Amino acid sequence: MQAITVEMQESFSYWPVILFIIIGLIGTGLILFLRIKPRKKKPRVPVPKPVAPANIMALKAKYLKALDDIGEKRNANKINDRQAFQAVSRVVRNFVYAATGIKVQNFTLMEIHAAGIPLLYELISQCYIPEFAIENNTNIYEVINKARTVISQWN
Predict the structure, then answer these.
(1) 3-state SS of 15-82?
(2) Largest Cα–Cα separation, the chain
(3) Which 8-state DSSP code applies to residue 8?
(4) How far is Cα of residue 64 from the mean position of the Cα atoms in its chain?
């Protein structure tokens, strides 16, 4: 019988192979992470559908009346300032939706800005802080008048 001899390699001789495998796994993981990682979404820019000119006057009258109701409720202390700011924001957002078909009711302030509706952006930005702040110095009646202007001047 012939004897089989096995020579043992030094333990450090495997390090280059192990290091190569580890670097390969890290590189593969990094590539997969970058491909799977969600990318930042650009704000959606909706395409408006204008209301027929004959209907826009009736639409404006409806939403101007809603603003009048908010002012009357605030004068009678039936609602507080915060509720009034929320109501103004809701009325103007609903008006823009009815006039254009753009669902701005759930848009963030940045999405409204990206949609290219500067009058709405300016008005909603004035409502944002008073809607959520404990105290505010913004006059609700000035905001209601500004909302009237936005609706009245809408094309």
Answers:
(1) HHHHHHHHHHHHHHHHHHHHHHCCCCCCCCCCCCCCCCHHHHHHHHHHHHHHHHHHHHHHHCCCCCHH
(2) 112
(3) P
(4) 26
Instruction: Kindly state the average pLDDT of the residues 60-89.
Output: 92
* 84 Cβ contact list (under 8 Å, min separation 6): 70, 73, 74, 140, 144
- For the chain, counts of helices (H) and of strands (E): 6, 0
Distance between the two ends of the chain, CA-based, in angstroms?
Answer: 103
DSSP one-letter code for 110: H
**Amino acid symbol at 51:** V
Q: What are the tens digits of pLDDT across the range 29-63?
A: 888 887 776 666 665 656 666 666 668 888 999 99
Stronger pLDDT, 25 or 130, i.e. the higher one: 25
Structure tokens at 15: 């390090």
The C-alpha atoms of residue 152 and residue 155 are separated, in whole angstroms, by: 9
For residues 130 and 133, give the distance between their C-alpha atoms in angstroms, rounded to a whole number.
5
User: What is the pTM assigned to this prediction?
Assistant: 0.64
